[in-house]
């Protein structure tokens, strides 16, 4: 049988209201009485019912987090940032994996709201009108992490992906004329921004058809291997490849090495994200530093402001990025 607040009150010889005050941290309880209640709770193994407390306070102190793939190093780092700030503000996390499937994403949004979460952090790819409709009708605040809503109506935390891709391409152009770009899935705003950054830098260098140097991947290691196979078949083989994720860049490096192509001597490779993979591969990977942990942490802090009705100066936060050069590119 579950131990109830009534059992604790009887054991401590106090009222249920007193037990409730102790459990909820109300300071208006005498120290001796508080100790009696805590001793009774320990003896009986009582655990407060979070659902019942939530019904009474209209808060459950839980936040739903919808993530595309928890096995991804990128999203795991984001989730860690969310978790740490949630703990700091005394919130618990309910984490769900969406597989970046639209129907599953929409289902999970409604499932989370049905669990009476106090707020929701969403990470995904393509934000559609259906997503926006769910966000607008939500009874609790929602924030996006490393996910772009083109309407800017949903609070979000990102970097400037276009500028980051432009900076990386410009750096490669200092040593190379022919640069290939391995993009991510075509239907996402973030990928579109990266593509635009690559194109802008290439056009400034005099390349009027940057599209001919582009191949499409899906951010996975295997798609990096496949992308390398397409790139080496290009008429004028590139001497550098800019890859829109670190994991995909590892596939490119290993595919090149399997063919006897030396990195960076014969071909430079540049990644995006600066996950731990960037320092695990040999040669170590030059990459765009996207502050994944910070994006998650800032998104959670932004959400707490909305949940607690604090003042929010900017609901669409852009964090700084930077470039880190390692051994997969020629040292300047």
From TrEMBL:
Residues 3-57 form the HTH lacI-type domain. Keywords: Activator, DNA-binding, Repressor, Transcription, Transcription regulation. The keyword DNA-binding applies. Gene3D superfamilies: 3.40.50.2300, lambda repressor-like DNA-binding domains. The keyword Aminoacyl-tRNA synthetase does not apply. InterPro entries: CcpA (IPR006377), HTH_LacI (IPR000843), LacI/GalR-like_sensor (IPR046335), Lambda_DNA-bd_dom_sf (IPR010982), Peripla_BP_I (IPR028082). SMART domains: HTH_LACI. GO terms for molecular function: DNA-binding transcription factor activity; transcription cis-regulatory region binding. PROSITE patterns: HTH_LACI_1, HTH_LACI_2. Global transcriptional regulator of carbon catabolite repression (CCR) and carbon catabolite activation (CCA), which ensures optimal energy usage under diverse conditions. NCBIfam families: ccpA (TIGR01481). This is Catabolite control protein A. It comes from Halobacillus faecis.
């Amino acid at each position: 049988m579950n131990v109830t607040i009534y059992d604790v009150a009887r054991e401590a010889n106090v009222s249920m209201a007193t037990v409730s005050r102790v459990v909820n941290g109300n300071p208006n309880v005498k120290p001796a009485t508080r100790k009696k209640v805590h001793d009774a709770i320990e003896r009986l193994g009582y655990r407060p019912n979070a659902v019942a407390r939530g019904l009474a306070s209209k808060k459950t102190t839980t936040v739903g987090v919808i993530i595309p793939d928890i096995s991804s190093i990128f999203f795991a780092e984001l989730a860690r940032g969310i978790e740490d700030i949630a703990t700091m503000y005394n919130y618990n996390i309910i984490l769900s994996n969406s597989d970046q499937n639209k129907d599953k994403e929409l289902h999970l949004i409604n499932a989370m709201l049905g669990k009476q979460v106090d707020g929701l952090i969403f990470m995904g790819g393509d934000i559609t009108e259906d997503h926006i409709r769910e966000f607008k009708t939500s009874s609790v605040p929602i924030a996006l992490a490393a996910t772009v809503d083109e309407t800017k109506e949903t609070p979000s935390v990102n970097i400037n992906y276009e500028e980051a891709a432009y900076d990386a391409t410009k750096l490669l152009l200092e040593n190379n004329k022919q640069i290939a770009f391995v993009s991510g899935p075509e239907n996402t705003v973030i990928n579109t921004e990266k593509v635009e950054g690559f194109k802008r830098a290439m056009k400034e260098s005099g390349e009027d058809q940057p599209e001919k140097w582009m191949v499409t991947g899906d951010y996975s290691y295997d798609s990096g291997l496949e992308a390398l196979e397409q790139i080496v078949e290009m008429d004028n083989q590139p001497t550098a490849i800019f890859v829109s994720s670190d994991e995909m860049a590892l596939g490119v490096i290993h595919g090149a090495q399997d063919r006897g192509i030396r990195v960076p001597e014969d071909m430079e490779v540049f990644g995006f994200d600066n996950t731990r993979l960037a320092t695990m591969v040999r040669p170590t990977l030059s990459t765009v530093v996207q502050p994944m942990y910070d994006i998650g942490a800032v998104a959670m802090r932004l959400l707490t402001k909305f949940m607690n009705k604090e003042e929010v100066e900017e609901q669409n936060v852009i964090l700084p990025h930077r470039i880190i050069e390692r051994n997969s590119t020629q040292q300047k």
